[in-house]
Design goal:
2 copies of one chain form a homodimer. By secondary structure, chain A is of the alpha+beta class. The first copy, chain A, has 10 helices and 4 strands.
Chain lengths: 213, 213
């Protein structure tokens, strides 16, 4: 059976999974979820993922959610090419990089939080942008010295890892929101190099069927 | 060398790691970080963890951060007792449970975000409490059917996993903020059963040297 990925073109969590699937050479059908229209909150999508977030990867026997759990599952079921190094301490560092993005940047800046800030707390566009910038800067401040220390072309080492699966979408998001990322040369260099690889390029938002260009 | 855990008694991320260390039988020295006084933002702590968040686990050759990355490292370096099931799909589910808490509940409700909402956006105490309740409810709404389906005494299966390491602190936090958790009987039953085990009990906030009771 061909897998089905429920995705939204610009959202960073499904972007991570698209990269992982492409790196592992896994084919899938693409079903768009329109986050602007609120399709993720409608019953049809809640039947796929009750949490109402993207991505969801339907593999037939189960619908997988949570991008990092999907990537770990891909790594365990398809070990080549490896997305984690072999040494446990190196793996800890790669996962730390991924989690700084997946826990400490992205959840604060996603659609549902923006909606709550606006509708429930009356936060206007400029303050929302400042909020987004703040959490990206905090996370990138922590990541930059790690990438500078451990990167050898990629975020960690000489090949793409889970860290790059998270970093490339987060750098895309930072540019989308016009964050000045010139203070993060190691991050930008690693992300831009990874983004140029065919697997990363195929996963880019602009290449998705629901892209609005 | 004995490890050193930089921890704060009521914070849920170090609480997760205390549980993991106790389950794996790893001794450590405890260094408190006073989040109320803002010690996590001071140079002395930033020298330990530049991200300014707890926990940080100093193992001598490296300081490990990000609670889930620390737990995965513990699992890989000390396989017994296992905190992840053997089957890749089961592991995916356990990690999904952990990530719903670690990505979609906790980062929205932690100290630095509360501080930003108050100082930068003028959000008062009642609105902050509503915010906290909202993200706990959203996450628990997703978790409850998963625990009901997969739990056999614990969040997943018959023994503690990474999911319980995250769930017990999150239920503690929900009670601290007076969230009505009666709508989540599977979560409450699993968390209360786990919390009664010696390893979980030893990790409880009230048992830490910096507890204010």
């Amino acid at each position: 059976m061909v897998y089905t990925l429920h995705s939204a073109w610009r959202a960073t969590a499904p972007y991570r999974v698209r990269i992982g699937l492409a790196l592992k050479g896994v084919d899938y059908d693409y079903v768009p979820v329109d986050l602007i229209k609120g399709q993720q909150r409608e019953p049809a999508y809640k039947a796929v993922n009750p949490q109402g977030l993207t991505p969801a990867l339907d593999i037939g026997e189960l619908v997988l959610i949570q991008s990092l759990a999907i990537l770990e599952w891909l790594e365990e079921t398809r070990p080549e090419p490896p997305l984690l190094p072999k040494d446990p301490l190196d793996r800890q560092i790669v996962r730390t990089m991924a989690l700084i993005i997946a826990c400490d940047i992205h959840p604060l800046n996603n659609t549902r939080v923006g909606r709550y800030l606006n509708k429930e707390l009356g936060v206007e566009q400029a303050a929302w942008m400042a909020w987004i910038h703040r959490w990206i800067a905090d996370g990138f401040d922590a990541l930059e010295p790690m990438v500078a220390e451990h990167g050898r072309g990629f975020a960690f080492g000489e090949t793409p890892t889970l860290a790059d699966c998270c970093l490339v979408p987060q750098v895309y998001s930072a540019r989308r929101y016009e964050v000045d990322i010139s203070a993060y040369p190691a991050i930008v260099a690693a992300a831009d190099r990874a983004a140029a690889l065919p697997a990363f390029a195929a996963a880019h938002p602009d290449r998705q069927p629901d892209a609005v260009l």
